[in-house]
Amino acid sequence: MTFHSLQQKRRSIYNLGNQLTQTPEEIFNIVNGAVREAPSAFNSQSVRAVTLTGAAHEKLWDLVLAQLKTVAKDPESFQKTQNKIDHSFKSGFGTVLLFTDTAVVKNLEERFPFYADNFYDWSEQALGIASYAIWVTLAEAGIGASNQHYNPLIDQALQAEFNFPANWHLRAEMPFGSIQAPADTKEYMADDQRFRLIQ
């Protein structure tokens, strides 16, 4: 399978199940391998990844729901949100939490003051590359996933529950699992609106 075909296979899968043939340890290794080989500015390796499965995965989405309930406008809108989470993200096999280690970023800012204004942006690029690498690698293994962003709403509750280092700044949550239904057809903008060749 070519990389381009893997890119086409990687889609946002919202209808997830927990019927995977891989073990939690095998998925842990998939995630770690993808992040380990992902590039980062100055080889800073500022991305941190935590793979949650089983009770820890379910606890995460319970925390998300609890925090969303505190900001819900009304019971009806919260019910829609709960249905989405229960039947899409929580119903999966696990979730990858993606963090930026802010201590790494701060250290680079201090060591290389000429580039200090860029290191946060570069850490976001590293996070995006690592996230995409995980997503494509999961797709290669036949595992569906999507990229979610309930941070910063859940940051304090997550820290209290799992006791992550204080300098780990949550950037995304990637629920994954068996593909219970395929993604919708992807629509593309016209190429001439996005791409230019200048010679």
From TrEMBL:
Its main location: cytoplasm. GO terms for cellular component: cytoplasm. One of its GO terms (molecular function) is oxidoreductase activity. GO terms for biological process: cellular response to oxidative stress. InterPro entries: Frm2/Hbn1, Nitroreductase, Nitroreductase-like. The keyword Cell membrane does not apply. Keywords: Cytoplasm, Oxidoreductase. Residues 9-177 form the Nitroreductase domain. It is found in: Cytoplasm. This is Nitroreductase domain-containing protein.
